[in-house]
## 1
Amino acid sequence: MDSAVQWFANNMPSFLSPEAAIFLVSMVPILELRGGLLLASILKIPMVQASVICIIGNILPIPFILLFIRQIFKWLKKTKIFRPLIEKLEKRAMGKSDKIKKFEFWGLVLFVGVPLPGTGGWTGALIASLLEVDLKKSVPAILLGICMATVIMLIVSYGMLGTIMQ
């Protein structure tokens, strides 16, 4: 992920402001908030401003995933082209779902909140949707997880990493 963020920082389109760039990176699966905050620290965007932009960017796709992904996947699996990709995504997401199945709310909070590869708001919302976790549990759990990931990534991006990169 660090190399993807560094590549984006080096090749950021000239028409994008730094704030727009971190917003977009925060919306992208895999990079999400973690990538947005790393990019913000590289671009020297103030921590509070970066946090707000990255949180909003990371939260924005979540309701759409929770509400519509099962129907979209069902429709895409009917096509020969997308079926293998969708089945792979479902298999990968469900392979990470053990803790969420067992602990539901807190499992989802930790899954989204601990910034490891393959975790985050997107995957957490996908798993919650596929497991049909109630929206009253999944939405607060994902939001709490995103807040937890924000704190961890601020420490990493603006604390330890910020010191190393200067």
## 2
Amino acid sequence: MNKNRTLLIAAVLLLIFAAVKFALFFWWQNSQPAAQQAVCDLRQGCMLPDGVYAKADRKIPTNAPFDIELRNVPAGVKEVSVSFSMKNMDMGFNRYGLADEGGGVWTARQIRLPVCTEQRRDYLADIRIGGVVFQTAFTAD
């Protein structure tokens, strides 16, 4: 009888844990700012809608590290990051923070694209500047 009671308590605790985890995930997902679409080729460099210039240091490879630089980032911005995904495919957590180099320049060095098991090369870059997110599509080399 004690064993059954212990199993019942463990099952109830697991259900509570799962419900809390689901609620927190749902809250986190809904609290993320919606991405603004930007027509931007990171490989050649481009201007985002807010006037920030974004550029990768070279063609973006699928199997080697590369750098990204943003210029004209407004003063007062505390955090800049970039993450990569694909349409209709979960790529896991891969957010890279950019370092403030001063003068409105932020850089991320030696970053890598997440690996696609289906050999796709059509990526989306989410560039987060403060509380604003710009999403741009590109094809990796």
## 3
Amino acid sequence: MPEHHESRVAVYIDFDNIVISRYDQVHGRGAWRKDNVYRLGPGLDGASAELRAKIEAATVDIGAIIDYATSFGTTVLSRAYADWSIGVNAGYQGQLMERAVDLTQLFPATAQMKNGADIRLAVDVVEDLFRLPDVTHVVIAAGDSDYIAVAQRAKRLGRHVVGVGVAGGTSRALAAACDEFADYDSMPGVRQPAQAEPRNAKKSDARAASPRKSAESATGKKASSQLLIRALELMHERDDADWLHTSEVKRQMVRLDPAFNEKAIGYSTFGDFLASRANIAELDDSNAQLHKVRLRHGEDR
């Protein structure tokens, strides 16, 4: 693959997957199908005021995904796959075209509304990587485990694979197949969804029902702490060094669990995350320019 000073990024969005996952995240599992959202045509004709409000509450910020992809380098191509005749999808077309995203039309192949996006997207990824050998990063916005094979194939071809998914709608196996995996909710600029207010509901009830970004759960804290310990142990063993650079430690944690992201569990920086694990990680504050950390000895933990 030719060398380039700047990374070049290809973006692939299973748009149906992202929109449906977001709707179900906000309104409950299976809500998209139960509410028959996929039956609405352009302009959301036939939708009640309540359903329109629910759709609005689950709006996806596509710009946030595209912006995130640009953080890896220059975007050389971007494609979104969906049945654009569905009213909800049609409402995003202008926004997508403004960001130079190619819209790939997919028609339902079965009564269950499966449109074969996974097959078409996978074929395009592999074809593009052979056709464009200068592409260094592949960003796949989807949550379906069907994309595991294409993620693995892209990695074998020497590309850095980044996954993007909606919490609750993403296969953990897919996250593990990527080099990195980002939670859509933790992306800069993404506002936390507010559930649509039911008719005749009191405002206080609606506020109580609105999902918030919760603090790190006890289970999540244990898992991330174990991940940090494992990363530090591996690096101390490999490098035989007393102090480790924090940036390298984070990279090791992401290698072990591509879904790890300190922002997704409530920390604005990796340094804040390490500070919250003072019983595990000791920070070197002797040099403000060099951020270093080491694993505390067993007796100190």
## 4
Amino acid sequence: MAQTRAAIRYAKAIFDLAKDQKSAEIVNTDMKAIANAVSTSKDLSDMLQSPIVRTATKKSALLAVFKDLNKLSVNLIDTLIENKRINILGDVAQKYNQLFDQSQGTQVAKVTTAVALTDDLKTKVLAKVKELTGKDAEIESIIDESILGGFILRVGDIQYNASIANKLSKLKREFTLN
């Protein structure tokens, strides 16, 4: 919880600074790359979390992986290292992306399906997001075979569960109550 609050504070600070310098979009691109790399690369994540790896090594590795970072993004890495908080870099990057999306009036809809999304289902999901929130959204697709079919939609605080597993669970509850 404390790390989440710290990540939000760092993200807000870098976002405000980037807005003032009119480079919020460029920094957002950097933060997307960082968040994606940290979440998909176990080695990178482990290196950031490791108390054994020296901070100088962490910094040089990050700058080698992310070669074309904006000056503000490099300053964020320096600040996190200086404050012994480099382990939350991925969280800060995710929070920054959320702040940027909110400022642009867009949102990310996480769609969990049993199979890859078809174009038809994407259209239906985007229509449902528009109906629920009144805003447009980008779709982040998650595949989870345990839901059997249908989809689970999460947009901000709203969750819409149209999965077959959920419907079967409801039927089971109805039969056990009667």
